[in-house]
Amino acid sequence: MSIQIGLIGAGGIGGIHALAIEAAGSTLAAIHDPDHDRAVALAESAGGARVHDSVESLLADDAVQGVVLAVPNCLHSPLAVQALEAGKDVLIEKPMATTVEECDRVIAARDASQNIVQMGFVCRMAATSMAARKVIESGRLGRIYHARATLYRRRGIPGLGRWFTDRARSGGGVLIDLGPHLLDLLLHLCDRPRVRSIDCHTTSCFGHPPSGYRFTDMWAGPPDPDGPFDVEDGATALLRCDDDLSLSLNMSWASHLPEGTIPDGVTLFGEKAAMHFEILNDKPLIIGSELDGELVDTTQPVRSGEDWNTAFRRQHERFARNVLSREAPSASAEEGRTVQALLAAMYRSAEAGASVSVDEALV
Length: 363
Ligand SMILES: NC(=O)c1ccc[n+]([C@@H]2O[C@H](COP(=O)([O-])OP(=O)(O)OC[C@H]3O[C@@H](n4cnc5c(N)ncnc54)[C@H](O)[C@@H]3O)[C@@H](O)[C@H]2O)c1
Hints:
By secondary structure, the chain is of the alpha/beta class. It has 2 domains: 4-123 and 310-331, NAD(P)-binding Rossmann-like Domain (Rossmann fold); 143-271 and 340-362, Dihydrodipicolinate Reductase, domain 2 (2-Layer Sandwich). Helix content is 33%, strand content 23%. The chain contains 11 helices and 15 strands. The protein has a 9-stranded mixed beta sheet. A 6-stranded parallel beta sheet has the order 3-2-1-4-5-6, sandwiched between helices. α2 (36-45) links the parallel β2 (27-32) and β3 (50-51). The structure holds nicotinamide-adenine-dinucleotide. Residues 8-14, 32-35, 38, 55, 70-73, 75, 93-94, 120, 122, 159, 177, 220 line the site of nicotinamide-adenine-dinucleotide (NAD).
């Protein structure tokens, strides 16, 4: 299925969307970015999409059927509302917004316009995540009592001193950057459990000297040494859920831990078997269980030959299908809002230095 897409934001992830749109068989028809040269360069590499000077002009482009928002987090909600009011379906990069109130504005605009909002929770679209979901659905793990997601970047602060590290524009640091991916995936794999309380600890150690962080080869860079850094660069959270399930999230933008010391990915502990997998990599599902009184390794290959870009391609195939068939999106605005509410509770817990309960009305 093929649709005409308008891309707002031609930065790092905008470039990946441009490739994925083409790979999915859709057309990148229009681009807007206030950095005009960047928009022109991406348009040229993507086969000559129209470059618009303003968001309004792109949204008035009748050929555009769906809009992708690949802009700083603080712009997600206002631009989504604007696009929905202009009659467009929208794919919003994660996080959905910077606050729950902003998510509510998007949902209200979606309901008023009857347009589609799909969340960019691309980790669900990875071959390993999809295979893991099938294993869980088969009942092979039994009841899951604990699930953890870990992503420790070593030298991975995005755009140090630019919008990613400026709370006013990002809404936070690593927690709101990597957290939506990890949290959404755990909620999705564990059948959307009801979270009761959260204990979260955040750290901010690498943004300013004397941390020793002098790395300059960064996503959304180059670094601006005089720019803001008022966000966290490490976070750990424990989420207690109904049915005696707990989730744990462990993430960093930077640390001095040698690569490979702790495996990144998702680990699910079930009463019948346990499973670990790396998100987005063409790696096996490592599964352990008991047979005749012995622990056995029944690791299952995924053999997809896939990478990060394939998951984005799948996301765009799904977006085109949603737009044309008006099917419910694979990752809904409500799911985006739940992630946002839980992230907000994590920030409250980190600030209070204590566990916080999660209000049912909020999630
Ligand atoms: N799904 C993923 O794995 C993933 C990965 C990276 C980033 N992201 C998300 O994508 C979004 C963009 O991140 P990025 O890494 O591409 O950042 P970036 O800084 O590389 O690019 C952002 C782009 O938005 C443009 N922009 C700023 N204001 C704008 C406006 N008013 N209208 C249109 N464009 C505007 C900037 O000029 C820039 O080109 C963020 O929300 C981020 O969380 C998602």
